[in-house]
Amino acid sequence: MTTAHRPTFDPARGKDALRGPAYHQRLQAAHTKLKFRKAGQGGDGDREVRDLRAELLQAEAAHKAKLHGGPIPDDDSEAPESSTNASKRPLEIANHEADEEDAEAKRRRILEETRDIDADDSEEDDDDDDDSEDDSDDDEDETAELQRELEKIKRERAEKREREERERAAAEQEEKERDIALGNPLLNKPDFNIKRRWDDDVVFKNQARGTDDKGKKKEFINSLLDRRYGGHQDLKLEELQREVLSIKEAVGKSVATNLMNPSPPTSTSSPHFVNGRVPQPRALKSRVFSGEDIGLYFQRYFECFHDYFPIVRLQDPDKCYEKAPVLFWAILMVSARRFAKDSTVLPFLTESVPPEIWSAAAVPPLSVEAINALLLLCAWPLTTIRFIADPSAHYMSLAMTSCYLLGLQSGRGEQPELLRPNYQIRCTDEEAAYTWAGANIITQKVSTYIGIPTTSTSFNQTIEELLDGKASTQFPTHYSVVLECARFSNRVSKTMCAALEGVESISPHLIYMYEEEFAKLQGLMQPELSELDQFVLQSTLLELQSYYFTAPQDLTAEPKMRNIFKAFNTSQSLIQQALKLHSDKLFLAYAPHYVCRTLLLAACIIILGALSPDMRDTPLPSRNGLVQDAISTIKHCSVIGGDISWRGAKMLETYWSFCQMQAPIKVDMTRISQFSHRLGTSLVFECLRQWKRRVESTLPPTSSSTKDQPTNEGTEEGLTKPYPAGVPTDENTAEQDIQFFDWDALMTEFDWSFMPDITPSLNV
Fold first, then answer.
1. Which sign, positive or negative, has the C-alpha torsion 213, 214, 219, 224?
2. Digit-coded pLDDT (tens) for 568-611
3. Which regions of the chain are under pLDDT 70?
């Protein structure tokens, strides 16, 4: 029984082992040895007269004896002449009788003996040469010994390196065999370790929290699987969809392949894994991705896509999945746009990644990796987006708001309020700078091609410091050029938004002013920019010149057409640069989506210019070549049949072939203002609207339609437009040409519905 709780003055004792006497360290003797004076410390021996010359000669003799291997003379040797071969003149050292002479007589004798020492300098030089030869021989021997030692060290290191290589190869072979034997996670469940909670797929977690009623058992309700909440029906629906997809693959009706622009062939070489190891296999819903496929997708992303938008700083797939699974799957989806293993990978990821995005966005604040995933889906969006139905604006707003919550606008990665145990959100200053710059770029690009004002006040002092080189993080040249152009476009869009508030038109003088400012900005940039950087500058200039098509109605025709052809020349130069970049490094296959939208704007301007009566003197083959080049650039941006790039190219191609049968038209600048609220993208919408009206005016009228519909006699639209010579004008030919139109795109995107009496006459 212990007695530790009882008060006592007796110290605690461990059983019967009593301690011995203890002494403090400072009570012990510090010095236990007697010290003696040494030479030079003021002893009795220091007061005696020393013969320094004799000591020096004795030391030299001992040194040379040691160097040549001879015997070392004793201290009290009486004949130093016989024990040394020094070149100096030997001095007769006095015998035991000389010890008795006084110091003054000895000093005078030494001075007389050393009076003629300068006469023997030549003899000393000869002796020194002999000594130097001996020293050189010794140095050569030492060099040879060092060379042999160096060769021995090199040989040992080479043997060690070969041994390590053999061990590494054996380990890799063993790991490869183990992966082959145990690589299927469906057959070897114990080896399939995925670091995910069992309820990661649940949207609403911890639903049982707060139910403190006594007598009632707490439980967790999985709303996706419980029959009471409709989860059972969702699972049945997903299972049915998978069965339908498998049936389509069996009968050869899988997802349509992009025949216009086939993806680049996948390299058969083995991928280069990060840190030399294969990533862990991962699963999304019911599909498993092997480690080799994941490593290949990550490698292709950082080789082909990353340089155009380098916001992802984490290249290890396993670490990326641990930090943010949504970024992991976003990278796989972007890489699968061009390097999918089969035709089902990209549709599966397109369907499965958005729920992961919204599930991550439901728990603010988002991490930097989740923000990067949102920005990637804006730069390379889903293949199911349309001109109006585009979620990029929502992703952009979420990303920008999350940047403000994390304090990334300050350029610092760690904020004190986010380092608490509840959040633990931190990143480096480099990650914060790249993410904040990417959010500003995407915000401006998406706002430009969708045609909406920016939803946040971006491009702050941090962006200016990054562009001026005052920050600790330094961007690549291309990323800096894109950021600088985005900042300029942001200022332009804000000014144009304010100018379009009441008048719905923009004065050309305002555009002239910004063109001069942009020319100065180009001069301040680096003198030698790459072709890719020149393409970015031309794209920014074209976005500015697109506002020429929102000119006031009272503007005369001459400045209108001059401004139009200014934009026409910029569009033509942009198309040629895009084709050159694509032929060199498949630029259009990997470029972000906003590049495709800029090329679509350029194609619309080229078609308007080619159809203008002012280009009648230009041969038709030349105009046709310009239009076909513009359409081909949009085709190269297409990923899969039916995506927005494919639809845009098909619509422009069909419109151009249809317009070749018609008389040249005059570009009507007064109707553009109806879409002025869509800012720079108003021209694209207006071109498609004019297309719709022209096709409607050329449809063959029926008896019922002519009776019920009012005529436009006396107006320009009611006049019959002449056809060019040699073009058939019968109704059957017109109906056959109209059959090739992309009616689904028109009806879906631009709300075009046919009358009941016209629809049966078209075999579509």
1. negative
2. 999 999 999 999 999 999 999 999 999 999 999 999 888 888 87
3. 1-20, 73-103, 114-135, 183-275, 416-425, 455-457, 526, 616, 661-682, 688, 691-693, 695-764
pLDDT value of residue 535: 94
* Token pair of 62 as six digits: 């001992």
What's the number of domains the chain is made of?
2
The answer to whether position 543 is within a domain reads: no
CA–CA separation, 297 vs 311, rounded Å?
17
Print burial letters for 384-398: b (CB count within 10 Å at least 16), e (below 16).
bbebeebbbeebbeb
Residue 420: predicted pLDDT: 58
Q: Which of 394, 398, 382, 408 is nearest to 311 (CA)?
A: 408
How much is the pLDDT for 117? 58
* Nearest one of 591, 598, 599, 596 to 643, comparing CA atoms: 596
Residue partners of 477: CB distance under 8 A and separation at least 6:
526, 529, 530, 533
Q: What is the pLDDT at residue 716?
A: 32
* Torsional sign, CA 441, 446, 451, 452: negative
Range of the domain at 386: 270-456
Last residue of a domain, one of 405, 437, 456: 456
| Cβ neighbours for 763, distance < 8 A, ≥ 6 positions apart | 735, 739
CA–CA distance, 451 with 680 (Å, rounded to integer): 6
Residue 525 makes CB contacts below 8 A (sequence gap 6+) with 481, 484, 533
CB crowding 715-727: b at 16 or more within 10 Å, else e: eeeeeeeeeeeee
Cα–Cα distance for residue pair 644/731, rounded to 1 Å: 31
106, with CB counted inside 10 A (0-12, 13-18, 19+), is middle
**For residue 559, how many C-alpha atoms fall within 13 Å in the half-sphere facing its CB?**
13
| Structural tokens at position 629 | 């080049």
DSSP bridge pairs for 282:
289
Whether 323 is in a domain gets the answer: yes
How far, in Å, CA of 192 to CA of 182, rounded? 9
Name residue 726's amino acid: G
Looking at the structure, do residues 581 and 730 belong to the same domain, yes or no? yes
Q: Which residue has the tokens 């992802």?
A: 312
Domain boundary among 456, 482, 505: 456
Per-position DSSP letters for 205-254, written without gaps between them: --TTTT---TT-------TTT-GGGTHHHHHHHHHHHHHHHHHHHHTT--
Tokens of 48: 């005696």
What pLDDT is recorded for position 379? 93
84 assigned to some structural domain: no
Cα atoms in the 13 Å half-sphere on the side-chain side of 147: 6
